[in-house]
Structure formats: structure tokens, C-alpha cells
Amino acid sequence: MSHQQRNRIIVFDTTLRDGEQGPGFQMTPAGKLAIAQQLARMKVDVIEAGFPVSSPGEARTVKAIAESVGREIGGPEICALARCVDGDIDAAVLALKGARRRRVHVVIATSAIHMESKLRMTPTQVIERIDASVRRAARSGAHVQFSAEDASRSDIGFLSEAVRTAIRAGASTINIPDTVGYAMPMNHGARVRAVMRRVPATSRAVMSVHCHDDLGMAAANTYASIRSGARQVEAAMNGIGERAGNCATEEIVMAIKVRGGTQGFWTGVDTREISRTSRLVSEAIDTTVAPNKAVVGKNAFAHASGIHQDGMVKNPATYEIMRPEDVGAEGSRLVLTARSGRRAVEQRLRQLGRHMTGTELERLFANFKKVADRRRIVGDAELMRLARA
């Protein structure tokens, strides 16, 4: 494998599974299918379509995605979640049957608090369940991914044993999730590296991470894990998901695009489809993206400070580290407020067809400041009124 291929990062999008689990984020079957089709256009590598055993409707939706999006030549791999329970695995295998490329994602907790309080299982029982469940999923012919739930709070020795067992049983992707958003970048990257060091068989598997945002560290933990050897990232559009949500697909993809080049990291994602995908997800869950949301918020390419606007007029690269067109956004905006400077006002007037200079511009700018002190934003209609005064 070439150096370039070793540094290709697989993008596993879980908008339709973990993303939908956030309170109030449930989507209609038609909405999920439309998002799956758009994720395919965006060229994510894997779409986690859902958790089939959770309901008959969920199973039907995963089946529909597998039979439509999953049948496209060169399209994404379709994945379904299953606990390490026979019925879950069988339901996932059945729902995925129509896809060209199928992945069964089996999961069980490996932290002491989860094993004792939730699973009520001993460590030995968990290892036995991992072995049996991965083998059962592998017999279906699907690609098997194993996730050690709450890996960031798991004993490193036991976590390594769980990973070793899963690979021996047939798992070819190993996910080290920060399920509860507890990790910090220096910790999670080190944890991935420690597992790889302790389990030589990980050289035959793809190491993955799935980070939650409870402490606002999801994207940072994910990127740190890439630098430590992970080659798959799991994320959801707009960062939706349980509690504070997941690592946002758009954030980690653009972090790799903007900053990953120095380490050689890259993805196959068509980033020009990001904004369109974000809007579709927002509409499907009837939730507005925060204005200051990284990459896809309406203010991501908007500038109100006079100092910033002056720089933007001279050279957009002074204040924008990525171009709006790179993510399919409409373009940069100079928003006129009380903080705006003369150059931004003059620039907007020119865009509106009015060319003013000298004392005429000075008079308008003085009047503009008076209006701007009373309003949050001075729109085009008000600016033109001032120009005619």
C-alpha cells in the first residue's frame, strides 16, 4: 500500500443512526432515504443507516436504503448497528441484504461501570459474547466492525483483550469510541496508539474512532486519533446525536482538508456538497443550525468587524481559512453593523450600483453610523435610503 493510500481517511457517517438518536431528531423514512442519497453524492465511504432491531419501521428504512443507495456502483458501503445479541445481528444482516457492500457494526460495552451497572456481565462473559457475536456476523459475508462502547473509560488491558478477540473472530474494523465525551485529545490519541501497540493484529484492521461532544472536544479528539493511527472517522452532519452530539462530519472533513495535508491525510469526500447536505439534515429534523456553527453556520463566512471587513476587501485569505465554494456555500458576506468600517460600506454601495467618494461618502458614512447604533444590522434598503438622502 502506498503512503498516500495509508493516509486516506475513511469517512463513516452516522447521521441516520446515532444522529437520529438525539432527542427530537427522529426522521421520517422518506427523509432518511433522501439524506442517504445526498450523503452518497457527497461521497462518504460508509453510511450507517440505522439500528434494524429497534423497530419494524427502522428495519424497513435500512432495507430501503440498502436496496437503493446501496445498489449504486461505486456507492457507499451500507452499515447497520447490532448489539452483541443474536437477534440484533440477524436483523442487521437481513436488512442489509440488498446492498452491494454491507457492514454489520457490533457493539458491546467494555468499561467497568457499563459492564457492572448496565450489562450485569463479568469481563469473561463480555469477551465470550464478543467472540460469538463477531463470528456470527462474519458468517453472513458482511464486513464486520466491532465497537468497544465507552472505550475511553475502559481498562486498557481489558480493552486490548476485547479488540484482540474481535479481530481473531473476524472483525476488520475496530472502533475505539469516546461514547460519553469524556476524553481529551492527548488521552484519546494515546489510547488508540496504546491499543495498536498492545494488539499487533490491529495492523490487519482499520482503526476507527467515534467521539461525542460533551466537553466540546469531539473534533479535536477525532483529529488527534488520526494522528495516532486511526484511519476511519465516525461523525454526523451538523454534529447531531445523543446528548451534546457527535463529532460533526463537516468539521472533521474540513479539518483534514485544511490542515491534514501537512501530514498527508485526505478523504474522498466531495466537500462542495457539504452545505447542501447540512441544509437537508436541518430540514429533516426541523432544527436550525446555530449561526456560529463551524463550516455550515450562516455566519461561518460572514464578517461584521470593520478591521476584518477591510482585510476581506483587500484579500479574503486574510480572514477566511477556507473558501465558501469549497463547502458549497453561497459566498462571503460583509454584514453592515455599527462595527463596520468605511471600506465595507463603500464596497457594498458599489455592489448595489452606487459609486460614492470624497465628502459625499463621508457624509453618508456619518449617517450610517447613527443608524447602525440603533440597529443590529443595516440592510441594503436602508443603505440605499441613506445614499439618496
Structure commentary:
- This protein has 389 residues and is of the alpha/beta class.
- It has 2 domains: 3-284, TIM Barrel (Alpha-Beta Barrel), CATH 3.20.20; 302-388, no CATH class.
- Helix content is 43%, strand content 13%.
- It contains 15 helices and 10 strands.
- The protein has helices at residues 3-6, 29-41, 56-68, 86-95, 112-119, 123-138, 156-169, 185-198, 218-227, 249-259, 274-284, 306-314, 342-351, 358-372, 380-388, and strands at 10-13, 46-50, 77-83, 102-109, 143-149, 173-178, 206-211, 232-235, 302-303, 333-334.
- The strands form 2 sheets. It has an 8-stranded parallel β-barrel, surrounded by 9 helices. The chain has a two-stranded parallel sheet with strand order 9-10.
- Helix 3 (56-68) runs parallel beside helix 4 (86-95).
- The longest helix is centred in the middle third of the chain and has 16 residues, at 123-138.
- 46% of the residues are buried.
- The mean pLDDT is 96.
Strand content: 5-15%
**Average of the residue pLDDT scores:** 96
In CATH, the architecture of the largest domain is Alpha-Beta Barrel
Gap from first CA to last CA: 69 Å
Unreliable spans are none
Helix content, binned percent:
40-55%
Oligomer: single chain
Number of separate domains: 2
Largest sheet: 8 strands, parallel, barrel
Structural class, by secondary structure, is alpha/beta
Report the principal-axis shape. Answer: elongated
CATH topology of the largest domain: TIM Barrel
Q: Helix and strand string, N-terminal first?
A: HEHEHEHEHHEHEHEHEHHEHEHHH
**What name goes with the CATH superfamily of the largest domain?**
Aldolase class I
